[in-house]
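Side project, low priority. Logging it here so it doesn't get lost.
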Amino acid sequence: MNIGQAGTASGVDARLIRHYESIGLLPRVSRSEAGYRIYSENDVHILRFIKRARTLGFPLQEIKKLVSLWRNKSRSSAQVKDLTQSHIASLEKKIAELQSMASALRHLAKNCHGDSRPDCPILDNLESNT
């Protein structure tokens, strides 16, 4: 199948498919005599795997490791679990940071009158933290 068909079958945009191939996330695919990429069902399967991993927030470098582990049938599941637990810790740290930001903004919004007067504690706070 061509890149458009592979994109439709996997749900991955053609631009991303080219990018994944260029960074080695997707193995180089064969080409037609005219130089067009030719994708197999296995390539589409890898693209779906990558898409799902992206949906779960894994960065590309970690996805590269996951794809390698997935393709290596002699892998240990401990490697996959360690990588996943590290990703969970990273997500939980980001969640805590986002909750802290939301809390600070809630406090600022609560103290803003939101009327026609020019004074604004939100802008005052932003100005004082520069």
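Brief comment: The chain has six helices and two strands.
Revisit when time allows.
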